[in-house]
Amino acid sequence: MKAPVLSSFLGAGALIAGLILAGPLVAGPERIAFPENFETEWVLYNQVDRADRKRVRFIYVKPEADAEAKPGQPAPNGTVLVMADRNAKVDADENPVLDADGRMIPEGDFTAIFVMEKQEGWGESVGLEVAPNGDWDYAAFLPDGTLNPETNTAGCFACHTRRTGKDFTFTYFQNVADRAK
């Protein structure tokens, strides 16, 4: 392993270890509310097939924030992103079934709903000292809309910290830039 890769790998490991030792960084229901009607009233901007998990991820953004988003700029305060998972249809050998376009076919209801929300000053109160994520916070909900009490959002902070140049998002920052072309 080359030195920069090794140091990045070790740095990420130290960050994750620090998050685990720091304990759960769980957003409370007063901090991030369940995104009502996201499937029907929000902007679906991406769909990701996760063959490794046999899941199809649907990624939505709150329409008002999406209308304010500017290419190359951080998402505006008030932005809410939702990643909602559904199981993929599988064949008799438990392999995902693909449609005519080579995409996995989702079936059933959502199995998990993950939310990241950005509000001014949030980075100062949760996670900033452990894993800087700007003013984003994270929550996971069960399909019935209740906060998942078993979720430790430290993993969210750790993973998204690597995306500093993309406003801590994996797909949204790029989506806004691509639409402007």
From TrEMBL:
Signal sequence coordinates? none
Q: Which InterPro entries match?
A: Cytochrome_P460, Cytochrome_P460_sp
Q: Where is the Cytochrome P460 domain?
A: 35-171
Cross-referenced Pfam families: Cytochrome_P460
Give the protein's recorded name: Cytochrome P460 domain-containing protein
List the source organism: Devosia nitrariae
User: Which lineage is the organism of this entry classified under, starting from the top rank?
Assistant: Bacteria, Pseudomonadati, Pseudomonadota, Alphaproteobacteria, Hyphomicrobiales
